[in-house]
Amino acid sequence: MNSYQRVFAAIRHERVDCIPVAPYMGNHGAKIGGAIISKYCTDGKIMAQAQLNAWELYGQDMLVAQSDNYYIAEGFGVKTEIPEDSTPFVLDYPVKKLGDIYKLKVPDPYTDGRMPVYIEAVRLLKSQVGNQAVVRCPGTGCFSLAGHLMGTENFLMGLVEAEGDPDGETANALRHLLEVTSDALISFSKAVIGEGGDIASVGDSLASIDMISPNMYRNWAWPFEKKVFSALEKYKLHKNFATLLHVCGNMTPVLSEMAETGADIIELDYKVSLETAKQRIGENVCLIGNLDPASVLLNGTPELVAAESQKCIDDAGKGSGFILGSGCELALYTPIENVKAMIATARNKSFIEML
Q1: What CATH number does the domain containing 160 carry?
Q2: Helix axis angle, 169-194 relative to 115-129, nearest 10°?
Q3: Sign of torsion over alpha carbons 342, 344, 349, 351
């Protein structure tokens, strides 16, 4: 099997020749690939070439066009600053009062913000790897995107008020905001998939149970994540691709809800037990994860990485439906030998006997 065949077989819970492996390495890929971050996140050609350079070094099954979280938000009017060799940060938000929410318009992914950069990167990556490897697209989750437009603190404080008065002015405005951000994500996801992307991602880290309550997730994040995946499922009539949901933190209390969004793949942070996730939702979705990016991949030894990789495979690899991945994005300066140890562990075909 090549990487493309291996990943999609795992997604379908079919037998694979070895465990697929896909460390999430946006800006690490930039560094390893020889790019300055400020150039990488503003130029699709540089982004694509850096990720191709990293792929030549590592040979992982999945490439990703990724850098930061503001490429869609900028299309709404979020103002950012981009340091010379670091990711952008926010200077100003378009939503300063509730009434501003109703002025928002869904941006055009081909012209607005830095979405065109990512679209170009996806197109160039796919033109180079074809069906030899999988190209994963980025996608800022609708809940997280709402936080970018209001400012995280203001958005979360508004949600607390909305929870206390679900039919009030604030609640209605925030629902409208989430409708708009989910529409924007659907539009962007269709654009990158249309350029050849193989996996449409929804990265909704602000929806973490480390940040909000399980009930708040069910009431305010889940319905709009489900809306996005429902729209993308219909789009599969035109394109062959898979969908992925990632939320940081310990999402154990809402694993079932995550699976019920309709995503094909659930990517789990290192705080979630893969064994528990496999038992609860592993029959219905493909799991990806979940080495600790800091204590294991950044600060650990190759021997520790190999041992922790083996544990992930033991916990979730049986019966296929599993891709070995990092719990979240790799740190920029993750040692090359650690990433190689992770990939080598997945490539050990003796593990496949457990399937």
Answers
A1: 3.20.20.210
A2: 30
A3: negative
